[in-house]
Structure formats: structure tokens, C-alpha cells
Amino acid sequence: MKKQVLSLLLSGALALNLFGCSAQPAEESAPQRSPAETAGSSSAGVVEELKIGTLTAPEVFNMSNDDSAFGRMNYTSFCAAPLLEFDANNMAQPYLMTSWEVSEDNCEIIATFAVDQGITWHDGEPLTMDDIIFSLDYLPNVAGHSHMQAIDEVEQLDETTLRIHFDSPSAFLFLNNCMSVWPIPKHIWEGIEDPEAYAEPDAAVGCGPYRFVRFDEEAQTMYYEAVGESYMGRPLTVQSVTVRTYDSSDALIMALRSGEVDAMYNYSTSISATQLNSITGVEGLDPGMSDKPGCYQLVFGFQAQPTDDLAFRQAVSKALDYELLAVSIGGKDAQVPGAGFIPPSNLGYDAELPRLAQDVEAAKTILDEAGYADTDGDGWRELPDGSAMEVLLTPQVTKTTQSLYLRMAEIIQSNLADVGVKVILDEESVRNSDHQTEVRRSLKYELYLGATSAGVAQYRTGFYYMIDTPEFPGWGSCNIPEYSEAYRAVFFSSSYDEYLENIKNMQELNAEQLFGISLCWEKCYFPYRTDRYEGWNNYPGRGVINNSTWYNLHPIA
């Protein structure tokens, strides 16, 4: 952090005119509620041991990051206590940060923290404001916390209040990334120069409602226990938790079917639609279906021909068989996507924009009129200057998704071949992930076949991967000023009202300019048992293991 100022001021110093700007009231930033207002009731009994299955390996037990099964569980306000948590609608709600005000210029937050509520670290030390300040200074230098790097000054105003200043209009953006921002104990991490490599037992010390107890390597199981009967005024209705890693989704499904585990949690990756038959119609097992916030997408390169040409992009959008793509990607529950790109479960989705539809003849006409003709009669169109046209398709292949990406690529190749466009699969990127990364970072790709995760979809959206601006370390290649500014407006919105207006504009621009095409809107499946417990809340894209689970789950009477 560039500068850190610690000064205890009188409570009257909270008047915002002291800082030369007026503040937006907290209730306009988000529909905030206190933890006590969402308290679960312990009268219905408690869950002695909740058993969760996952597919993520428990390789790292380190509170400074969100790696592996241990870190990913902390997205659920579990072992770590995030500054804010997010409800089923992906809107920020109070947690350790109990209230906040965003300045008019969106460069500052005045925030109060729950450091006066008796919260302790899992080694018994109290959570203090020093820990909060230390974390805001330390974490921006840790991998995975790039969204915190705009913090340039922190000032303590009184025992529970901070002024956090940013070097850009990033205050509201910071708030909407706080699900993955949790403090770490200063007395452990101070002086640790390489946080990612730190692997001592105290690296797992958090201050959330559950403490890490042990890891059984042979059983690939992590054990946790509640810190008490309640946390921040809310009764904890789940007393202990085990998280077991399975080596395949088939094995996890069998564990769910047999009742070996109660629910599935696997950040951003659910059971595949191809396995849906294995989790439907089973007594006591709910498939846990919800709308998927992210999507698979085709992104156009704006630094290469012919994908920098709007006419060519329009022809591609008309050529694709969305019905086939939807069933191939998401099975019978998947939907044909809309022209605005953003799936329905996301904040600001514009339902008025049309759905995409295949029209091969229209695609051919667009290409003809734009000068993409088959001048040599070999069945393939040339560029308008008469030179050969072979369009490279680079897929974002991983070990577990290779077959699906290759199937999507096959459909895209076939559909474009039907309108005379020759598409070549980037086979080197399929074989070599480093080459794939280099193609993406170079911004010289032509067609890039990738995906938007639930975390990116939540606020940044898939446009993060399409628009090139200096502030964003993504791989967008569209640097046309008008569109870059439109996305900057989304990224640097100062309230939810402003965000909704800006993201609607971005969807309309995509419908017109086609930065990228969503290939289908999927459902996702995070199965859970219904014969033991009740009180599950199925969050879209996250499933029933979320920040409400620990306070609402009860045994069935």
C-alpha cells in the first residue's frame, strides 16, 4: 500500500465533509441487514455433522489465498470471515464490515467493522482493527487479490471505523469483490515474505464460524468444528463439518446416492448435464438445479482479420446452430442464449433483447455483401482483398473439459463451413496450455472459445474477457474507445442503480457489435440429500453450501 495513516479521531469526525466529498448513504449502496436479522433458530435442533463432498483437491491449507478445497470453502463464510457476504441475488450484505458509505467520487469508503463483537482468531487471539488494517495492506501483494491493488490509503477514524481510499473510482468495485476478501491474523502473517509458500499449521487460522481441526490424507477428508453455539449473534445450527474430496464426479454421485455425503460443494463447477440421469429420480436426492451465472462463449479478436470486421462477426452469429450447442453443452435443460450475452441469473440481465437464432442464408448474404467471396471456386471464401482466409479457433482446453471444448469446436467449424468459412482448430493450444495462454495474452487470437466463471459473472461479467482497457488484466482485445469507456462505466459503477444502467447499456452494445457470443445458457447441478435435513437454500450457481447453510440447516423432525 502506498500510504497507511493511523489516527484515532473523535466519533464526530465521521462527518463526511471532513473529507471534501459527500457520501452516498449505505442503504443506497446495498440493501444491508444486520447479522441478527438473518439469525437462524436453534429450536428445531442442530446438525451434529454435515458431510460435504467435493471434487477439488485439499492441497493447500493457507488462509492468505483461496486455493484448493480448503480455500474454496471460504467463499461460503466458513473458516474465514469475509468483509462482506453475498445473498442469492449476488448483492453485498454486511458481515465483518457491518456498514459502509461510498463517496460521491467512488474513491472512498467509510466502513465500520465488527471488531467490538468479541470475535477471536481460532488460536484464541482477539480480532482487532490492527488485523483489518494489516490485511488491507498485506493482501494486495498476494496472488489472487488484484482487485485490492487500488487501495492507496487507510485511516482509522475510531475504534471500529476506517476510511479506505482508492487511487481510482474503485470503491464500489472493491465492495463487490469482498466475498473473497477476508482478514488474516497480523500476529501470524507479519513478516511472512512468501505467503503462498507458508505451510505451517497456523497458516489455516481464521476467524470465521468454523475452525479447521485436521486433515486425514488417506481419506482425503477435512474436519471442522463450530467455534461455539453462535457466531456474531446468529445461532449456528451445524456443529461440525467434514469435507471429503472424491477423485471423480462418478464417485461423488455414488456417495450422494448412498447417503455417504449430504451435499456437494465445488466452486463454479457443478455436476455435468451428461450425468443428470444419475442424480434424478433418486429418493431423497435433489439434483440442486439452478441457473448458471457463467457461460461458454466465443470471443472475437479485434486485432486480426477477419474477426475485427462487424459484418464477419454478424455472419458468424447467424451461422451457429444454437439448439445443437445448447443440448451438447447443457443437455435438455439448457437454453438458447440471447444477444446481450449475460445469462438470466446475473444482476442486470436484460430480458428484452432477442434470443440468438441460426439463419444460414442470412449469414451467406452478409458475407457476400461484405466482399467475402469464393473467388477461386474451391468452396472456401477469401478475404475481401482476395487473399486466402483461414480463421484460427483457439479453445480454452483443460484436462477435465477437453472433450466438451472439442465438441463445441467441432460444431462451430461445421456451422461456419456451411457458409463457406474455413476454420482451423488451434491444435497446439489443445496440446500445450502454455501456448494457449500465450495466444490469449498476446491478444492476437481470432476466435477464442472460453468460459466465464461464476465469480467473474457476478460483477465483472464475461465482457471482462472481451474489452481491452489499461485497468483490466484480462484478455479482451477490443480497444475501440467507445466500447472501452462503456465497460469502464460498468467496472467503476458507484452504486447498484448505476451498475444496472451501465450493464444494460453493455448488453445492448454487444447485441449491436458482437464482442462475443454466449453459446448457451446452462443450468447447473449441485445435488443434496433431502431425507436428513431441511432449511437448504439453493443459490444460483453456488448450490446449497453457501453462507446461509450454517444458520438455517436443521434435522428433519
Report on this model:
With 557 residues, the chain is of the alpha+beta class. It has three domains: 80-195, Dipeptide-binding Protein, Domain 1 (Dipeptide-binding Protein, domain 1); 208-287 and 525-553, D-Maltodextrin-Binding Protein, domain 2 (3-Layer(aba) Sandwich), CATH 3.40.190.10; 290-521, Roll (Dipeptide-binding Protein, domain 3). Helices cover 25% and strands 19% of the residues. It is built from 16 helices and 26 strands. The protein has a six-stranded mixed sheet with strand order 1-8-9-7-6-2. Strands 10-11-14-3-15 form a five-stranded mixed sheet, with helices on one face. Helix 10 (402-417) links the parallel strand 19 (390-395) and strand 20. Helix 7 runs antiparallel to helix 9, helix 8 runs antiparallel to helix 10 and helix 14 (481-491) packs antiparallel against helix 15. Residues 1-42 have low confidence and may be disordered. Residues 1-25 form the signal peptide. This is ABC transporter, substrate-binding protein, family 5. Residues 93-466 form the Solute-binding protein family domain. Pfam families: SBP_bac_5. It comes from Flavonifractor plautii ATCC 29863.
Main traits of this protein?
single chain; 3 domains; D-Maltodextrin-Binding Protein, domain 2; Dipeptide-binding Protein, domain 3; five-stranded mixed beta sheet; 26 strands; six-stranded mixed beta sheet; disordered N terminus; globular; Dipeptide-binding Protein, domain 1; 16 helices; alpha+beta; 25% helix; 557 residues
